[in-house]
Structure formats: C-alpha cells, structure tokens
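In the previous chapter we treated chains in isolation. Here, by contrast, the input contains two separate entities that must be folded as one system, with a combined length of 232 residues.
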Amino acid sequence: GAGVSQSPRYKVAKRGQDVALRCDPISGHVSLFWYQQALGQGPEFLTYFQNEAQLDKSGLPSDRFFAERPEGSVSTLKIQRTQQEDSAVYLCASSPLRPETQYFGPGTRLLVL
Amino acid sequence: AQTVTQSQPEMSVQEAETVTLSCTYDTSESNYYLFWYKQPPSRQMILVIRQEAYKQQNATENRFSVNFQKAAKSFSLKISDSQLGDTAMYFCAFMKPHAGGTSYGKLTFGQGTILTVHP
C-alpha cells in the first residue's frame, strides 16, 4: 500500500505570501501529526488530529499557522504571510488509533525569501 | 515537559564495525515509549526500533539493539556490523502514554546524531 505522501515537495515563497502544504496519510489511519524541522535539527511538534478533530495545536508557532483535516483524511497546513523564519521542512506523519508507530511522509521543504 | 538530549552531534564508524549512539531523556512519567528514527540524506524518516518503558527487556531489530536504563533515563542505540546504508541522521524520540480513552502520540525528538559509515 501507499505510504504517507506530501505535496509539494519543495516550495519557494516570497516573504508575505500565503502557502498551503498538503498531506495524504495512509488510508485508514486515524491520527495525523504535523512537525516542523529546521535545518540540522530534530522535528518539533506542531499539531495533532484524530480523524477530523484537531485535539492539540499547542505547537503552532503563531496565529499565522492554521491546519485542517475536514473529512478526516487529507490534511492541509496553511501558513499566512510567510516569514523567513518559517523556512523549514514540514513533516506529516500518520498512525492507527494507537500511535505507537508513526509513519512519516517525505516532507515539504519550504524556503521563504 | 519531556526533554530528549543527544550529546553526540556527529559519529563515524568503519564498515562492519559497531557503533553506539547515546540518548538521555527527562520525564516524570512512569510509562512511555522510546524510539530511534533514521533520516537518510534527503529521504524520509524511518522507524528503526521502539522500546516500551514497562518492558525491562531491551528491544532488538536485526543489527540494531538498544540499552535501556530506566533509572538513569538513558536509551542508547547499538548498530552492529555497520553498513554504508546506515549513513544517516539518527533521532531519539519520546512519546507519552495514552491519555485515558484518547490515543495520543506526540513525539518529542532529540537534536539528532549524524552517523557516517566509512568503507
């Protein structure tokens, strides 16, 4: 079966632009996570969905960041008015209801100029 | 809050040799999960091995094994018979246990260790 997919793989944005990053989880996976990974660092938690419910958004760095998963499958992470400090790889992971094993996507590398 | 510390920014090893990557963590939880993930250059994160804190036996997966010292809050990864394909960034990660009836799996990662396997 297909793994977690993310699109686009690379995104270059001018400072101030809005961007939308997409995550397609493994079919049937209830839990979905977004992480932000700065260059040379470990990923940091952004937000968590169980089906369509966003149960934790404590890691979102500012109100410019917004995530949704309206039908409990595909998720979109939106960043408004991008800043240079938003440049990072954004990782999506999905898991069954008991998330002992998270399956990661390839990530979207965002560069804000 | 939980913290995970990897004190070795970079490690190198000769092919076929053994290498150990270190990880320490801090938590007040009594039950939790610990993980080692591998991230090859420009490729996606892959789970290497998982340890449940209530299990005293150290987890093993083929050439990969861990030394889990719960009292010391230490979780090191040993790679035996290193192969060129083991070259990657390795992350240690912590996961809190489930909260009641709601499953929850937020991972807290360390800073990573770059492992290079030389021929």
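The interface with chain B takes residues 30-31, 33, 35, 40-45, 48, 50, 55-56, 91, 93, 95, 97-107 of chain A (CB under 8 Å). The mean pLDDT of chain A is 93. Compare these points with the single-chain example from earlier in the chapter.
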